[in-house]
Amino acid sequence: MSRALNFNAGPASLPLAALERARDELLDFEGSGMSVMEHSHRGKVYEKVHHEAVALVAKHLGLTKDWDVLFVQGGASQAFAQLPMNFLPQGKTADYVVTGAWGEKAVSEARAAKSLGVGEVHVAASTEKEKSYVRVPRQDELAITSGAAYLHVTSNETIHGVEYGLDASTPFPTAAAPVIVDMSSDILARRVDASQFGVIYAGAQKNIGPSGVTIVCAKKELVAQGRKDIPAIFQYRTHADNQSLYNTPPTFGIYLVRNVLAWLEGEGGVPAIEERNKKKARLLYDAIDGSGGFYRSPVDPACRSIMNVVWRLPTAELEEAFVKEAEGQKMIGLKGHRSVGGIRASIYNAVEVAWVEALASFMKDFAKRKG
Amino acid sequence: MSRALNFNAGPASLPLAALERARDELLDFEGSGMSVMEHSHRGKVYEKVHHEAVALVAKHLGLTKDWDVLFVQGGASQAFAQLPMNFLPQGKTADYVVTGAWGEKAVSEARAAKSLGVGEVHVAASTEKEKSYVRVPRQDELAITSGAAYLHVTSNETIHGVEYGLDASTPFPTAAAPVIVDMSSDILARRVDASQFGVIYAGAQKNIGPSGVTIVCAKKELVAQGRKDIPAIFQYRTHADNQSLYNTPPTFGIYLVRNVLAWLEGEGGVPAIEERNKKKARLLYDAIDGSGGFYRSPVDPACRSIMNVVWRLPTAELEEAFVKEAEGQKMIGLKGHRSVGGIRASIYNAVEVAWVEALASFMKDFAKRKG
């Protein structure tokens, strides 16, 4: 089998070892004569996998005992509504920092949740500039609401390629209120001090598993304060009280998360993967910056994502030719999001250094021929 | 590999052919050099699978063009809240028929949704009797609300083993309002006239796939009437307008649903599987009724489920011994739900006739030795 060089934005490449493990035991999990997905979620065989996945999330994120780690459903898209339903009571205001399309969507869904008895939404900062986003705001640019319920930020904007907290010049914002962070596209890509947050959430389908699993990590004291008058299924409390086994969880997806995080462990954990991710990002940004202007990154160098590298070519025709030629060399998923155009290479944890080297080399060759 | 005789209530047994297909192409889907779960949900390779799964659901359920077939997340448990959020506006009342634990839960979550701007919930009938349920109500027992938003029923109660519409003596209720039916545990197990319903919904993990996929089929005219002031993610309209690709769907789960429904097609479709299911159910009910009272079905014979066969033994000790001995013979999942005790054999579509024959034979042997 010749493996594609998969630069998809999500669902995305998964570690080959995690997939091989799934294939090898797909029909007979640990000698049980059943697939893991045929096991009851209330049986010992699955429960062991479930709790191992929870423990690996906590370990790799460096979470202390005062955090709940939940596996729920609906992706970040559902969390955009469900988080304010839990943590933004009527009469209160939540602050949102918008640094790209996903932050916009978080604001839009939180505002729509007003009809569900949710409080007010305030945009504390937006770095939108001519319908695009190229940086994160500085702390002194934030209009923080006094007594806010929480402050919401997006650590990495998948479409715009803008990332928070990459170094000392782009720190995550601080606030008196708990900071809720959407880490969908860079969770476990690098070391982050979890203690600065109240909630860390992510769809699994970029860095930690297949689509259909959502990870919500929340400080227990925050979960306990959540609204109680909404249906049980929407209360994070319910899932915390039942160790994410209140209703049937997406068992096979959680099993795959377990496989991916076990692979991460074997690779040396987050510190080692961070080194590799930075090396991969450097290869692409060097190819962009060294192209004499043929490739152009729209993003402020201090905020350039190490997960989603976006760039432009001189014309839309050249961009199209670039994507097409790359596909001919089995490099998949390089077309920028339809809302912004251009090129995007998503280089999540499972994307191999050799693939990125091949892409950088192709970039140089393409620029030489077409530049 | 020796395959377990899997009588789990859900997640449950899946057709071996569907699993083998998944294993064989897990690392390389259709020569793409990627797993199907690594493909973008917006790419042609996955989209083909997605639309094939939608078409197979519609075909096997006999749905006309005026239905939407949606793949969403959260299981029936989320639908219990989300359905009233869409279809029960303030000032209106919805009727619920309760024939077991899942109907109870549907009522409880719909009532809790009142805080989300949802209307009133009225129990039109409940067949609860001494903390159990043994039958479905007759039409003349229903206290239907005039001008109700909808009537909700559970076609098969997984825990209590009570099923609607098995023959002319237990028809589904009729109402002026649309009938919404939770078919989680008997969808596609037998021929049902879909035209009598407004919404048919089901978690996939019993008859059609792994956990983590929820199927909601709804008449288009009903979807169009749904509430518009709630977050987009909760509106079934959103998923209908975007062919269930508004946000990232659980792609691998939907791929498995496709595999299972393609297998069903090859087996002769719903009419053939209905024959087989009835034969399997008859084997077990005959073993119960022919045991001279050693085994006892609590359910009214006209309402005895063909999917979840429940029965009692003379003592709890004998029940425990039964489950333990059966496990020794690789018959898994026979313990009744913790809320009701006893024995339960879930004999969904993928459960093979030979397994049920083995169970019936074991029942006779056990009764002879212990009776």
| CATH level 1 name of the largest domain in chain A | Alpha Beta
Assembly state here? homodimer
Biggest sheet architecture of chain A: 7 strands, mixed
Any idea what the CATH superfamily of the largest domain in chain A is called?
Type I PLP-dependent aspartate aminotransferase-like (Major domain)
In total, the number of domains of chain A comes to 2
Question: What does it look like?
Answer:
The structure is a homodimer of 371-residue chains. By secondary structure, chain A is an alpha/beta fold. Chain A is 36% helix and 16% strand. The first copy, chain A, contains ten helices and 15 strands. In chain A, strand 5 and strand 6 form a beta hairpin. In chain A, helix 3 (75-87) crosses helix 4. At the A-B interface, helix 1, helix 3, helix 4 and helix 7 of A face helix 1, helix 3, helix 4 and helix 7 of B.
Could you write a compact summary of the structure shown?
2 copies of one chain form a homodimer. The first copy, chain A, is α/β, with parallel strands linked by helices.
